[in-house]
Amino acid sequence: MSDHYSIRFQKVYEEYSDKVYGYLLLLTGKKEVAEDLTQETFLRVYKHIHQFNGDSQIFTWIVKIARNVAIDHLRRRRRLRFFSLDKYVIESCQPSPVEIIVKGEKTSLLYKGIKSLKLNYQEVLILRKIKEFSIKETALILGWSESKVKITTSRAMAALKKELKRRGEIIEEII
């Protein structure tokens, strides 16, 4: 690989590795697995960075690779326990201890609700609502049409609200 691609890869790795790790941690719920999958993702990025043609944002392209790496991992394990978000920490600007507790409880309830949904609902909610990808970016990552992303997001939100209501949670305070 030429020096140009090596330098480009190094910049890409430095800029996006933590974000990819966070995404994979959301999907797997396990630090060690997320670390391994992040490394696998960037091995694939390194091997194929010369093929990136700029049709999308580079981060969108990398997350698509990360998603494929995670799916490959799940297929190897032959399990569909996709992720546990209870351990995921939400960053904020120095909240009070009470705010931390309240936000942590609400976040935990929200993630437990998401975890109970079917896999494609989990994925679309993570990408659209947690990682805040656009509809277009989400469509590229998942290999769906933009209309499928919109419809599935809407259905996933409805299913999440129904699940939270079933659990007796006050939806407006959580979502």
UniProtKB/TrEMBL annotation:
Coiled coil: none
One GO process term, biological-process aspect: response to stress
RNA polymerase sigma factor 70 region 4 type domain span: 112-160
Signal peptide feature range: none
CDD domains assigned to the protein according to its UniProt record, in alphabetical order: Sigma70_r4
GO molecular function, one term: sigma factor activity
Short name of one Pfam family: Sigma70_r2
SUPFAM superfamilies, per database record: Sigma2 domain of RNA polymerase sigma factors, Sigma3 and sigma4 domains of RNA polymerase sigma factors
InterPro entries: RNA_pol_sigma-70-like (IPR039425), RNA_pol_sigma-70_dom (IPR014284), RNA_pol_sigma70_ECF_CS (IPR000838), RNA_pol_sigma70_r2 (IPR007627), RNA_pol_sigma70_r4_t2 (IPR013249), RNA_pol_sigma_r2 (IPR013325), RNA_pol_sigma_r3/r4-like (IPR013324), WH-like_DNA-bd_sf (IPR036388)
Domain RNA polymerase sigma-70 region: 13-79
This protein's record includes keyword Signal: no
Keywords: DNA-binding, Sigma factor, Transcription, Transcription regulation
This protein's record includes keyword Transcription regulation: yes
Membership in a protein family: Belongs to the sigma-70 factor family. ECF subfamily.
Name of this chain's protein: RNA polymerase sigma factor
